[in-house]
Every structure is written in structure tokens, then in C-alpha cells.
């Protein structure tokens, strides 16, 4: 068969030509691995292999850097013909179909990038072991496949090498950026929105290059692989429709300009809106500032993408008006909560249990999840669940309003986190800022038997071996040790009785603090503030001579 045949989607001639031209790139890539891995391994005198230390926990530091930059270095010359109209016309006049050119170029790029990875894997197999080598190779293959896909679509939709490089970097950060913008607007406008406490890991996991604790056998690995194939498929469709006369433009497809311009507006809207929100702690101010930020971002983006300052006329004005409307819809979607997030209150019959974190309000009692079982602060009592629902309803009805401005007395407000565990297996999480002295339902929850039992010191999953009794006046001077096992048991019983008897009003009344602290130790340490209402504890300490008086 003629090697220039137009049949099929692959051409050996193109592949051979690309590999021959970019052989030096592979040489320098191998040299990089020699400097980063092979030489340090050769001079390493420690007990653990240098390479094993870098790959044992999925770190792959050197491979991550390589997998990010090498696809960009390779893709710029491989797809360089797309950034010159004459070169594009010439390449497309050769006896190959566009799909043959595209597929062969991608395969050539993957080989140029991964032949050094294979060389490194062979060295690791000899120096460390086959399992470590295989793990490192699979990570390198997946990372390069993913990153080259990003660089490829950047090459197809841009018309200059500079824009190709810029868009390759920007596309790599695009999912993380969009995720961050959505989280920020949700936090500002959706009452009770509680972002994932592990946002950093979520953002890093959006790319295999930055993912933590990488494992080849995982759902995320499958997702990375499928996303890579989708990007290649979209790139191939775009390349097939690419018109040579557009190859000198900064952006070769009109719809890409629209998307980039709208995103530029939304990002500028986010920056300016956030600055004003932080300065004034006011959602309305943020809405107004965000709107003007959106307009500024649209105008600047339109100028840059079209490389002209003459944009305030007919069609350009109409386009910018439509883009601004799209950005405004995005903003208002959070303001009016079209997602139904803010007003979602489960019925009591839907709820299996509710987890509460009110450590700033009514959990001065220091029994924490590190010394409790996994069901710590998870309540099944229907009355407790009912009162949690009432608190949420009060917030949404405006009964329990959060601070209106930065002039509010923030000392009167505390955070209240809840997570409903529904019977269908799903969860609903919210975080509210409550005027805790005005919320009667908090009192019922605090004084409920289930709450008291869970946080009682006598029910803690730990073995207390020692107590220290100190006061604010003579701390570290007359510090008394309680080490007698019998006294420890009696003190635990007294503290537990006082906790069960303490009312919510007494819990939030900080004026009766005696300056008396009881520190306790097992594997961890913590302390208890003794209140004037804790009569059993005070009487015990006086009777046994651990304190002489109470102020």
C-alpha cells in the first residue's frame, strides 16, 4: 500500500518525519531525567532509595514537572504550522487527510514525550524494582496524555504560538478557576452555603499532574483518561473545520472568542466584587461592584481578543451587551437562588440523623471527636432534629439574622454547622451565623439527654490518667495534681453531674467564670472551665484540698 495513501486515520510517513525532526528534544528530555533522578540515585548514601522516596507515596515530583512542561514544549513546534497561513495551506495540500495529519501528529507527540518516560521506568526497574517502575510509568503516561490534550486544543483554537502557550497554561487552570469562582459566589449569596472543607485537595485533583495520593486503580484515573479522550475528540472536530484564512487570527474560532470573553468578564466581576464585599460586608454593594467589574472585564477582553480599541460601535456593542447579559445571569442565578440550594429544608421524615458542630456556642465542654466514637455529635432524637429544622427555618425567615455589616457586634454571633443524613443516603450541609443568645432551639438541643450523654466526660472513649487544677491567679504556682485513681473517678463523676445539670443559659453566661481550670490527660490533653454553677466539682475540690477557696 502506498505510504501516502489517504485511507485510514494514521500516516506512518508523518509519524516518521516528526520523530526524525524532534529526536533532539527526546535527548534533552532524557538528560533532564538523568539530572533529576539518575544522578541523585547514584550518589545517594541513605538507607532508602532516592527514587523510591519520591515514588512510594505517589509524589512523582520530577515526573509532574516534566509532564506539565514537556507536552507544551513538544506541541508548539508540532502544531506550529497552524499559526502560519502559508504553512497551513501547504500541509493541507499534501496527500493526507486532515484526520491523518491530526492523529499522526498526536501519536508522534505522545511518543516524543513518553520515550524518555520509558527509559526512566527501565532504570527504576533495575535500580529499585518493577512495581515502582510500573507505577511511575503509568502515572507519567496518564499525565502526559492529559496535558498534551490540553495543549492540542489550545493549538487548534489559537492562531499564534504566543497565544498557544498562553492558552495552554490557562486551559490547565481553567477548571480550577471556574470551581473557585462558583464557590466564591455560592459563599457570598447562598445562605448557609458550606464549602468543602478540603477545597485544596478538590482543586488539585482536577488534574492528574497535581492530584494527591495518586493511584492507577481509582475512579479519578478513569475520569482523567476519559476527559483526555473527549478533549482529543473535540480538538479533532475543531481541526477538521478549521479554515486556513483564520490561522493568523489570535483566536481561530468565533465561539471560542465568546467563551473566553465571557470568562474574562466573570473573572473581573469576581475580583472587583470580592474586593468590595470584603471592604463593606454587604451583598448589595458586591452585586453593584460585580456588575461594573463584569462590564470592565468584557470590554478589556474584547479589545485583547480582537486586537483593536475600536469596539464601541454597532456589532461590537451588541456582542458585548449579549456577553454582559450572560455574565449578569450567572451573577443573579446565585442572588435569587435558582438552584434551590438556599431554601432546601428537608422534612423531618426524610432525616435519619443530624450532625451538629456548635463548638463556638455551646460546646465549651471539651470532649472532642478525637476521643469519641465516629458518631460524635450525631443525633437521632426526633425532637433534636425538629429543633435543628426550626433553626434553619428561622434563618431563612429572617428571624435569626446574621450581622448586617462590619459594625455589628460579632461577639453576639457564632457559627452553627449542621449536616442532615437523609434516609436515602444523601446529605445536606449548612453553615449559619446565629445570634446564639436569641435562639431558643439551641437551648433545647443543649439540654437534651442525647446531647448531654454524648459529651459527658464519664462517657468519653478515653482513659484519663491525671488531672491538674489551676486558677487564673496562681497558675503554674499552686498547680495541684490529681493522680489518685479513686479521686480521678470521683472527679469525673462530679464534672459529669455538673454538666448534666448545667442549663443553656448558664452555658452561655461567661460572667460566672471563676478562673478555675481542670486539665486532664490521657493520650491527648484538654481543660475544663469550672463555672460558679458547677457545685459538685467545686465541693469536691474544696473537700479534698485541691483548692483552698473560690473567688
TrEMBL record:
Keywords: Membrane, Transmembrane, Transmembrane helix
This protein's record includes keyword Transmembrane: yes
Regions crossing the membrane: 21-39, 59-81, 101-124, 136-157, 169-194, 214-237, 258-278, 284-305, 317-341
Protein name listed in UniProt: ABC transporter permease
Native species: Gallibacter intestinalis
Amino acid at each position: 500500500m502506498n505510504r501516502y495513501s489517504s485511507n485510514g486515520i494514521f500516516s506512518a510517513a508523518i509519524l516518521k518525519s516528526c520523530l526524525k525532526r524532534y529526536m533532539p528534544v527526546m535527548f534533552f528530555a532524557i538528560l533532564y531525567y538523568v539530572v533529576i533522578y539518575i544522578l541523585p540515585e547514584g550518589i545517594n548514601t541513605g538507607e532508602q532509595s532516592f527514587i523510591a522516596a519520591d515514588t512510594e507515596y505517589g509524589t512523582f515530583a520530577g515526573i509532574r514537572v516534566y509532564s506539565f512542561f514537556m507536552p507544551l514544549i513538544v506541541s508548539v513546534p508540532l502544531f506550529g504550522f497552524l499559526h502560519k497561513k502559508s504553512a497551513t495551506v501547504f500541509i493541507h495540500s499534501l496527500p493526507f487527510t486532515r484526520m491523518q495529519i491530526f492523529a499522526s501528529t498526536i501519536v508522534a507527540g505522545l511518543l516524543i514525550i513518553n520515550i524518555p518516560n520509558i527509559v526512566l521506568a527501565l532504570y527504576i526497574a533495575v535500580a529499585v524494582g518493577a512495581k515502582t517502575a510500573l507505577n511511575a510509568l503509568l502515572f507519567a503516561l496518564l499525565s502526559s496524555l492529559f496535558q498534551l490534550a490540553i495543549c492540542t486544543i489550545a493549538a487548534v483554537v489559537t492562531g499564534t504560538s504566543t497565544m498557544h502557550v498562553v492558552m495552554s497554561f490557562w486551559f490547565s487552570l481553567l477548571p480550577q478557576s471556574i470551581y473557585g469562582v462558583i464557590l466564591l459566589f455560592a459563599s457570598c449569596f447562598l445562605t448557609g452555603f458550606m464549602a468543602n472543607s478540603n477545597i485544596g485537595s478538590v482543586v488539585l485533583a482536577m488534574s492528574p499532574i497535581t492530584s494527591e495520593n495518586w493511584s492507577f486503580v481509582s475512579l479519578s484515573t478513569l475520569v482523567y483518561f476519559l476527559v483526555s479522550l473527549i478533549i482529543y475528540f473535540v480538538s479533532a472536530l475543531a481541526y477538521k473545520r478549521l479554515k486556513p484564512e483564520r490561522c493568523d487570527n489570535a483566536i481561530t474560532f468565533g465561539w471560542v472568542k465568546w467563551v473566553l470573553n465571557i470568562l474574562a468578564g466573570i473573572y473581573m466581576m469576581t475580583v472587583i466584587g470580592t474586593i468590595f464585599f470584603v471592604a463593606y460586608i454587604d451583598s448589595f454593594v458586591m452585586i453593584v461592584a460585580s456588575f461594573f467589574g463584569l462590564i470592565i472585564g468584557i470590554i478589556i477582553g474584547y479589545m485583547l481578543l480582537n486586537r483593536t480599541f475600536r469596539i464601541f460601535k454597532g456589532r461590537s456593542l451588541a456582542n458585548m451587551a449579549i456577553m454582559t447579559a450572560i455574565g449578569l445571569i450567572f451573577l443573579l442565578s446565585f442572588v435569587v437562588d435558582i438552584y434551590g440550594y438556599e431554601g432546601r429544608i428537608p422534612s423531618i421524615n426524610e432525616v435519619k440523623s443530624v450532625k451538629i458542630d456548635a463548638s463556638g456556642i455551646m460546646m465549651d465542654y471539651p470532649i472532642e471527636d478525637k476521643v469519641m466514637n465516629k458518631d460524635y455529635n450525631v443525633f437521632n432524637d426526633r425532637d433534636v432534629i425538629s429543633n435543628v429544622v426550626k433553626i434553619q427555618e428561622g434563618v431563612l425567615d429572617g428571624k435569626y439574622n446574621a450581622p448586617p455589616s462590619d459594625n455589628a457586634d460579632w461577639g453576639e454571633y457564632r457559627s452553627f454547622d449542621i449536616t442532615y443524613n437523609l434516609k436515602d443516603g444523601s446529605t445536606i450541609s449548612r453553615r449559619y451565623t446565629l445570634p446564639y443568645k436569641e435562639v431558643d432551639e439551641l437551648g433545647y438541643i443543649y439540654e437534651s439527654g442525647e446531647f448531654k450523654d454524648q459529651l459527658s466526660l464519664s462517657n468519653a472513649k478515653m482513659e484519663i490518667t491525671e488531672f491538674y487544677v489551676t486558677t487564673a491567679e496562681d497558675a503554674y504556682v499552686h498547680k495541684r495534681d490529681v493522680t489518685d485513681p479513686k479521686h480521678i473517678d470521683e472527679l469525673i463523676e462530679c464534672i459529669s453531674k455538673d454538666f448534666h445539670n448545667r442549663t443553656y443559659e448558664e452555658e452561655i453566661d461567661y460572667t460566672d467564670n471563676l478562673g478555675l481550670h481542670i486539665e486532664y490527660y490521657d493520650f491527648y490533653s484538654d481543660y475544663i472551665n469550672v463555672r460558679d454553677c458547677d457545685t459538685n466539682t467545686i465541693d469536691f475540690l474544696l473537700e479534698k484540698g485541691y483548692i483552698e477557696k473560690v473567688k
